[in-house]
Design brief:
Blueprint lengths: L11 H11 L1 E6 L9 E2 L2 E2 L7 H4 L4 H5 L12 H10 L4 E7 L26 H12 L2 E6 L23 H19 L5 E4 L7 H11 L6 E2 L6 H7 L4 E2 L14 E6 L17 H13 L3 E7 L8 H17 L7 E2 L9 E7 L5 E7 L7 E5 L7 E4 L7 E4 L3 E5 L10 E7 L18 E3 L5 E3 L7 E3 L6 E3 L8 E8 L3 E11 L3 E8 L4 E7 L10 E10 L2 E9 L7 E11 L6
Parallel strand pairs: 1-4, 1-10, 4-5, 5-6, 6-7, 8-9, 9-10
Antiparallel strand pairs: 2-3, 11-12, 12-13, 13-18, 14-17, 15-18, 16-17, 19-29, 20-23, 21-22, 23-28, 24-27, 24-29, 25-26, 25-28
Helix pairs in contact: 4-5, 4-10, 6-7, 9-10
Bound molecules: ligand FHN.
Length: 575
């Protein structure tokens, strides 16, 4: 099968060049769902607010009446673009049509759109495209190509028989023609963001791919085809981890973490669980340190306005980027193999062969010294990015130690810059003994494997870093590589939240291979009930070791894992 963009004259590297520089973009979820904002007939409807039609099983005709009240007087495309620019965002992706089926643009193939079906008679896609062009921000569109709960035949509507119809006919008469309209009527479209590719076979995806050639620079995400056919058709240009940051990025692939500001994509009145500016900034830096982009979502209110809390946070992020943008835009993933407690690193390869290393310090050690383990190059110079205050960096036994000036109270994250004479080659750094003589393995040290559609992932950072997606027992594997200084008996424990009875094993891989298996009952009420569980005692030999953790069950059982702790057991001398 052909690649998505085979017919497009520009090759992938050329198309991706601006995107790889950009690092930060704005996702916008807006639609009829923004009006009820999570509540239907006085009742709070669970799940994502943009799924309200589905979750409350609202009949098509009744839901369509929302269009009569769709009058986004406060949707000001110039103001949105201006806010994105102030935030330091370099592109915008707007939901041209979400699963509800309502198009935010004039469509010749369906009158269920903001121009023909609502009193506002406005083409919001056109307004935003024009505003982006005026300001020079890249313009992108989200389009729900498979799920469409309004148009007969669209996937996902199980509750209203009047919507039943032929799926292929829906694709040919609504989805593909609308994508053609979007790519043909609004000038340059830089990103096309497909979603939930149910029933999307190679042949069906091909009907969309034929239209992509209309935009030679188009970047298409990885959600056009369903997962099982993806390898045979196209992986798309970008991986799209949703609401999490993969521990090691997506090696070999361009990737973008899309993330909610709170716990919904669409606006929900009652959801005030906004992420703090500091968390968002850490996310941006964490993602950049692994070579990815951050697509941060804003759910517009029903009147088209941006919630004030979001605008304020975005401006603060932009403010910080104004002083520290060099450490984010156009940088590459940092060189270190392990994530460090004090923060993250990115790097820039300079034309003369030197390298600028950016150290994002979000947890300044009391000593004021941060270590860069495994770095064997003596830095030529060092300074703080925003103040220019010099920073000393000296070679140590383990790598390079950087002596920071006092914390700059005004900054959420301080950035130190080191100029290196060449590309840093980092010696692999394995977990070491802690001050209690234990080996503590963080989720970030784990090698995770599992079936393609249910791979374990690390969510959260630092103390909250958690290995999730361990529900399909028997299908996943977690492996740790570490160095044992002294042979002998070691107790292996782990901080776990266990949702249902489990038989969990740890195996030592290699010539001294051995396995211990222990049974556990559910640990508590919810999945936030973490406690340290003893998995077993093993005889470890000095040197490099690999330890595998897995479940002996074979069905669905909720399980989350945090730290693994290996504690040496003093053996009594034989009498
Ligand atoms: O179902 C959608 C959801 O509403 C939202 O649009 C997100 C954004 O990535 N995508 C789907 C869930 O994966």
């Amino acid at each position: 099968m052909s690649d998505t963009n085979e017919k497009i004259p520009l090759n992938r590297d050329k198309r991706m060049a601006w995107w790889r520089e950009a690092r930060f973009g704005m996702f916008i979820h807006f639609g009829l769902f923004s009006i009820p904002a999570g509540e239907w007939k006085g009742r709070e409807i669970g799940s994502y607010s943009e799924w309200i039609m589905n979750k409350a099983e609202i009949p098509v005709a009744e839901y369509a009446l929302l269009a009569d009240g769709f009058d986004p007087r406060s949707f000001d495309a110039d103001a949105i673009v201006c806010l994105a620019r102030e935030a330091g965002m370099r592109y915008i992706v707007l939901t041209a049509k979400h699963h509800e089926g309502f198009a935010l643009f004039r469509s010749r193939v369906s009158a269920f759109n903001s121009v023909d079906a609502s009193p506002c008679a406005r083409d919001l896609v056109g307004e935003l495209a024009a505003a982006c062009a005026r300001v020079g921000i890249r313009f992108g569109l989200y389009y729900s190509h498979s799920q469409d709960w309004h148009h007969p035949g669209g996937a996902g509507n199980f509750w209203d028989p009047s919507q039943q119809g032929d799926y292929d006919a829906y694709l040919d008469t609504v989805a593909v023609p609308q994508v053609r309209e979007l790519l043909g009527n609004y000038g340059p479209v830089s990103v096309l963001w497909y979603d939930t590719p149910r029933f999307m076979t190679a042949e069906r995806a091909g009907r969309f791919q034929a239209v992509h050639a209309m935009q030679p620079e188009l970047i298409v995400n990885n959600r056009l085809v369903s997962f099982d056919t993806r390898a045979a058709v196209t992986p798309g240009d970008t991986e799209t981890p949703e609401n999490f940051i993969p521990a090691n990025g997506c090696p070999g692939r361009d990737w973008e973490s899309c993330m909610t500001f709170n716990d919904n994509w669409g606006y929900r009145k009652s959801d005030l669980n906004w992420k703090s500016t500091e968390t968002l900034l850490r996310n941006l830096v964490d993602i950049a340190s692994k070579g990815g982009n951050f697509l941060l979502n804003v759910g517009l209110r029903g009147d088209g306005s941006v919630p004030e809390e979001n605008a304020a946070s975005l401006r603060s992020i932009g403010d910080w980027l104004g002083r520290h943008g060099d450490s984010v835009y156009g940088t590459q993933a940092g060189p270190f193999t392990r994530r460090m407690e004090w923060g993250r690193a990115t790097q820039r390869l300079n034309p003369d062969g030197s390298v600028t290393l950016y150290l994002h310090v979000w947890q300044r050690p009391e000593t004021g010294v941060i270590s860069l383990p495994g770095l064997r190059l003596e830095p030529l110079s060092g300074r703080m990015l925003s103040t220019g205050i010099p920073v000393t960096a000296v070679l140590s036994e383990a790598g390079v130690d950087v002596v920071l000036p006092a914390k700059n109270g005004g900054e959420l994250i301080d950035v130190a810059v080191l100029e290196l004479p060449g590309i840093p080659e980092i010696e692999p750094d394995r977990p070491q003994l802690d001050e209690l003589g234990r080996i503590v393995l963080s989720p970030l040290d784990a090698e995770l494997s599992g079936p393609d559609d249910a791979k374990p992932v690390v969510t959260g950072v630092d103390g909250n870093a958690t290995i999730s997606n361990l529900t399909r027992s028997g299908e996943w594997r977690v492996i740790y590589n570490f160095e044992v200084p002294e042979g002998g008996l070691w107790l292996v424990s782990a901080e776990l939240a266990i949702g249902a009875y489990q038989r969990l094993s740890v195996s030592l891989l290699g010539p001294h291979g051995t396995t211990v298996t222990t049974a556990f009952n559910a640990s508590g009420e919810g999945m936030d009930d973490f406690s340290i569980k003893e998995l077993g005692v093993m005889r470890l030999h000095p040197g490099l070791q690999a330890l595998e953790f897995r479940s002996e069950m074979t069905d669905l059982r909720p399980l989350l894992a945090r730290r693994f702790i290996l504690t040496p057991i003093r053996e009594r001398p034989a009498s």
